[in-house]
Specification:
By secondary structure, the protein is an all-alpha fold. It contains 13 helices and 2 strands; from the N terminus they run ααααααααααββααα. The structure holds 3-hydroxybutanoyl-coenzyme A.
Length: 326
C-alpha cells in the first residue's frame, strides 16, 4: 500500500483497490478496523478449532489398534496443535494478544468449528474424521492459501500440506475397514452415517444466510462462498465413498446432468445453529477439557515468562557492563 495514488482517493478506497489487485495485506499496512476485526474473528476461531479438534482424536490414541496407527494418529494430533500455534501467531500480528483470544474461547465468547462437538465412538470414527472432516477442512483451506492477509495465507500453505496427509490417513483407515470383515465394513458405514451431515455443515450457513460472506469476499478474505465449497466437497467425496463401497446417508443425493453437480438433501440447519449456540452433544465437555488443560498449564506459562524476564535482565546487565568497559 505504499504506491502513490491520486489525492482524491480516500484511504479506504486505496485499500479496496489494493486487495482487488490481488496484493497481500501485511501487518504494517493500514487496514480498515472492520477488516482487522473480521480477520481476528476468523483466524482466532480457526485456531480454536485446531486446538479443540485435538480432543476427539486424542480420545483414541491409547486405543489405536496397532503401533503404526498409534504413531500416525499421535503425529496428526501434534500437527493440529502446531496449526493452532501458527494461527494464533498470525492473529497476534493484528494486535490482539493470545491471552485475550484464549480467554474468549474458555468463556464461550468465541466460536470454534461445530464439527468438534460430536463424539468419536469407534475406531472407524478416526477414519471418518480424517477422510470427511479433514477433507472438508482442506476444501476450505486451499482457498485460504490465497486469502488477502499475508500472515494468514502463508500459515495456510503449510497447514494444507499437513491436512492432506491427515485426509489420507483417514481414507486409509476407511479403506482397511471397508475391505475387511462384515463387522468392520458395518463400522465404517456407521461412522459415515454419523459424520456425513456434520461435515457438510462445517462450511457454514447457506450463502443467503451467511452475514459475513459478502464483505469477506469483497476483501478477498474468503475466495469462495460457503455453498460453492460445500458443493465442491460433495462432488468430490461421493466418488470416494463409491470407491470404498459405502453409501452416503442421503436419499436425495443424485447426479444432475444439467448442472454437472450432485443434488443433495435438505441440511438440518436447526441442528447446526443449536451446535454453534453451545448445545451440541459435546460442547460442554470440550470447553471443560480446554479449561482444565489451561489451568493445568499455568505453571508452564509462569515458568516460561519468569525465564524470559531473567534472560532479558541478564542481557541488559551484559550490555551495561560492555558500555561501561568501552
Ligand atoms: N462452526 C461454528 N461456527 C460457524 C461455522 C461452523 N462450522 N460456520 C459458520 N459459523 C459461524 C461463523 O463463525 C459466524 O459466526 P460469528 O459471526 O459469530 O463469527 C456465523 O456462523 C455466520 O457464518 P458466516 O458464513 O457468515 O461466517 P464466515 O464468513 O466467517 O464463514 C467459515 C464461516 C467458512 C467457517 C469461515 O470463518 C472460515 O473459512 N474459517 C476458517 C476455516 C475454519 O475455521 N475452519 C474450521 C475447521 S478447522 C479444522 O477443521 C481443523 C482441522 O484440523 C480438521
Amino acid at each position: 500500500m505504499s504506491q502513490p495514488m491520486g489525492e482524491s482517493i480516500s484511504i479506504e478506497e486505496r485499500f479496496e483497490a489494493f486487495v482487488a489487485e490481488e496484493n497481500r495485506v501485511e501487518p504494517k499496512h493500514w487496514m480498515p478496523d472492520a477488516y482487522r476485526k473480521t480477520l481476528v474473528r476468523q483466524i482466532s476461531q480457526h485456531a480454536h478449532s485446531e486446538v479443540v479438534g485435538m480432543l476427539p482424536e486424542a480420545n483414541w490414541i491409547s486405543r489405536a489398534p496397532s503401533l503404526r496407527s498409534k504413531l500416525i494418529l499421535l503425529a496428526k494430533v501434534q500437527d493440529e496443535a502446531g496449526h493452532g500455534l501458527y494461527l494464533y501467531s498470525a492473529a497476534e500480528t493484528l494486535g490482539t494478544p493470545r491471552e485475550k483470544m484464549i480467554d474468549d474461547l474458555l468463556t464461550g465468547k468465541a466460536k470454534y468449528s461445530s464439527i468438534f462437538n460430536y463424539p468419536t465412538l469407534t475406531w472407524a470414527d478416526m477414519g471418518a474424521v480424517g477422510w470427511l472432516v479433514d477433507g472438508a477442512a482442506i476444501a476450505n483451506q486451499v482457498m485460504l492459501c490465497r486469502t488477502s492477509y499475508g500472515p494468514y495465507s502463508r500459515a495456510m500453505v503449510r497447514i494444507c500440506k499437513e491436512e492432506s496427509f491427515h485426509q489420507r490417513q483417514g481414507f486409509e483407515i476407511m479403506m482397511n475397514l471397508s475391505k475387511g470383515t462384515k463387522g468392520q465394513k458395518e463400522m465404517a458405514q456407521d461412522a459415515l452415517n454419523r459424520w456425513w451431515w456434520p461435515s457438510v455443515m462445517m462450511f457454514g450457513p447457506s450463502d443467503d444466510n451467511s452475514p459475513n460472506s459478502a464483505q469477506s469476499m469483497r476483501w478477498r478474505i474468503k475466495r469462495k462462498s460457503n455453498d460453492e465449497l460445500r458443493q465442491e466437497y460433495i462432488d468430490k467425496t461421493v466418488k470416494q465413498a463409491e470407491y470404498l463401497g459405502l453409501t452416503i446417508p442421503d436419499k436425495d443425493l443424485k447426479w444432475n446432468e444439467d448442472t454437472g453437480h450432485y443434488d443433495f438433501g435438505e441440511i438440518d440447519w436447526t441442528e447446526f445453529f443449536d451446535v454453534i449456540a453451545g448445545n451440541g452433544p459435546c460442547n460442554a465437555e470440550r470447553i471443560a477439557a480446554r479449561q482444565k488443560a489451561h489451568n493445568d498449564g499455568a505453571w508452564v506459562r509462569d515458568a516460561a515468562s519468569a525465564y524470559a524476564k531473567k534472560q532479558s535482565r541478564r542481557k541488559k546487565l551484559e550490555e551495561e557492563t560492555q558500555d561501561s568497559a568501552a
